[in-house]
Amino acid sequence: MAAAPSPGQATPSHCSRCGNPLSWGIGFCPRCGAPVAGTFPRAPPSGPAPPNSAPIYGSPPPKRSEFPVWALILIVVIAVIAAIAVIAAIETDVFVTSLSHADAVDVAAIYITSGDDACGLNGHTLAAGLFSSPGASFQDTLILPSFNSSSCTISSVIAVTAGFGISDTNLPLEIPAHGSQSLSFTITTPSSFDGVLTIDVE
Questions:
Q1: What is the pTM of this model?
Q2: 3-state SS, residue 179
Q3: DSSP of 15-79, one letter per residue?
Q4: CA-to-CA distance for 103 and 3, rounded, in angstroms?
Q5: CA angle (170 as vertex; 173, 94 as ends), nearest 5
Q6: pLDDT tens for residues 29-49?
Q7: Nearest to residue 95, comparing CAs of 124, 123, 119, 120?
């Protein structure tokens, strides 16, 4: 008996001896018994398709990047805290000056006394942030606010804390109602200091 063709061979369409039509995959002619040989195209193999043979209709759309919700909440919280800090600074009469020098003399704030409560400033504290070298003398500015419902005038500014001196001011200084003005002056610092500077305004 003739052997069936191996999986790599093909089957002819008709028997070469008797002309009988042949089916795919047989090894001999069912009519005359002649061995089958030839180049008849093989039929496609039966059975389930391999796992990776599924048709590809296109790549999936790229995933859209979304801004994390937690990051948005964090930004909002930071913005709210910053707004509260600014409002609190205004309500507590905190005004920052432009004074900034070396660090031997450190004035964290300026306390104001006033016998006639000029511009409503008596008893108020202004943030300063003044740093300077010991015994320095330099020109600078301080923002003076008014807490009066009408305009007022500052005609005198004196350093009460020992070792400090204030001169060359731009007084008299007229401040509008609930407004502010820049006080220009020359300040002389002591050999060392760390605390609150007290000044008197009239």
A1: 0.48
A2: coil
A3: -TTT--B--TT-SB-TTT-PBP-S-PPPPPPPSPPPGGGSPP--PPPPPPP---HHHHHHHHHHH
A4: 104
A5: 60
A6: 888 877 876 544 455 555 555
A7: 124
